[in-house]
Amino acid sequence: MNPLDGVKNYQVYYGHPTAAILKDMQNYDLVIIEPLHYTKAQVEQIKARGTKVLGYISVMEVATWNTGLMSKLQSGDFFTRNGQRVHYSEWDSYLTNIASPHFQGLLLTEIQNQVVAKGIDGVFMDTVGDIDNEHLNNPTVLKQQRDGLVNFLKQARARYGEIAMVQNWGFDTLETSTAPYVDGIMWESFNADTIKSDAWSQNMIKKLQAVDAKHSVKTLTISTRLSADSHKLAKDSGFIHFHEADAYVNWNAGLVTRTQDTTPAPVAVAPTTKPAETTTTKPAATTTTKPATTTATKPTTTTATKPATTTTTKPAETTTTKPATTTATKPTTTTATKPTTTTATKPAATTTTKPVTETATKPVTKPVSAPKADASTDKPTESKEKEKADWKQEKKDKKEKKKAKKHAKKHAKKHAGKHSSSNDHHAAKGNMCGKVKHKTAGFLNFFKF
User: Fold this and answer.
1) Could you tell me if 359 and 441 are in contact, meaning their C-beta atoms sit under 8 angstroms apart?
2) Is 73 helix (H, G, I), strand (E, B) or coil?
3) How far apart are CA 74 and CA 69, in angstroms?
4) CA–CA separation, 392 vs 365, rounded Å?
5) Nearest in space to 14 (alpha carbons), one of 40, 35, 45
6) Are 196 and 233 in contact (CB under 8 A)?
7) Are 273 and 315 in contact, with CB atoms under 8 Å apart?
8) How far apart are CA 435 and CA 169, in angstroms?
9) Per the count of CB atoms within 10 A, which of 148, 169, 190, 278 is most buried?
10) pLDDT of residue 65
């Protein structure tokens, strides 16, 4: 049984949780989070009503800001080409060598500490798509990296049982190697205006449907444009959809409402006019876009609710929408054109693997309004000092929020560039890996999945 069975809606969020966010997460069938931000007790709260939780890890890249992980890496954990490490200047990260047993061990330890120990149901493995992007033109290295990933997945299964595993991108790798070992795959940039008119995308939908029929691998999609149209296209294809427009750093509150009774009929609620404000920024290297790329497994299957894809109504009004019945079309096996990716010369030394979760950063404290002076108190000095401390904290929080917003925009911009839509996916496939750099440490370090 696939732990994603019964999941009808989900959300990706890499920021710090608040009490309101933790409560709202209970309305979803699935949430993908940055595990460094959460305690075991908070995870249990999210799961109290059956919500499944996946934790982000980055498999095929390691960021330089993640000094904790970088200090543990050996030379063989980095992938090298012509004797040089492959560096992504836009992310300031390095391509890793998943074939390295040492690096596989680091990732397994990360899963133990950040996922299993906290009661998280599984892992969302970001940057898996790097395997196809970087090595498709070198069959020998491609096989080596795919075999390394499969070995890592087998070890994770052996150690941690039936935890849920979802990879981000890497469609060819899924079809040829990982389908028997994963429960899902994420397709970021699933925008209806591109998908409907693109032959490569239409063919890929059929291939993913075929993989699901054979191996029970669910497809999670994310759109950044045309929410309603993209959601309908995903549902018609038998996929699980989420519309993301702010780089995974803001919690989109009120999108779904779970009914109190046992009836499965979901109730769609119009999103609130103002999204829940969080005091955190987004992690890099992980995560799923990039959060799909980015960091998970599942608890018991719960009643599914339908994510809101309806036109916004007055905040006070709720519009109940009848969930569309998804008619699963029999997948037809088609020959997908191999994406033309980077021309990779045979690496002199094949060493690299993707870093795991980044070091945790201290969450930003929510600004507190300065208390009014109490006329009845005889401690004016203490009150004055508290006002001063609160003012300083508020000023500090505003500064952090400004930084967070700036980096969220920067992240969204480079994410859009990485997954820019094209009428010819054959030419763009090499740049379609969902590398969302959204780890906690990354975000508070200016966004460096």
Assistant:
1) yes
2) coil
3) 10
4) 12
5) 35
6) yes
7) yes
8) 9
9) 169
10) 81
Residue identified by tokens 């009004």 is 317
Within 13 A of 348's CA, how many CA atoms are on the CB side? 7
pTM of the shown model: 0.63
350-381 confidence digits (pLDDT tens):
343 443 333 333 343 344 343 443 444 444 55
8-to-25, 256, 313 alpha-carbon distances in Å: 14, 11, 22
From residue 322, alpha-carbon distances to 3, 90, 198, 325, 331 in Å are 25, 44, 30, 9, 26
> Which stretch of DSSP H or E encloses residue 85?
strand 84-85
pLDDT tier, 394 (very low <50, low <70, confident <90, very high otherwise): confident
Nearest to 398 by CA among 366, 373, 375, 421: 366
The crossing angle, in degrees rounded to 10, of helices 139-160 and 101-111 is 40
Q: How far is CA 268 from the centre of its chain?
A: 23
Q: Has residue 182 got a pLDDT over 80?
A: yes
Task: Look up tokens 């505003």; give the residue.
Answer: 398
Q: Which residue type, as a one-letter code, is found at position 324?
A: A
Residues in the chain: 449
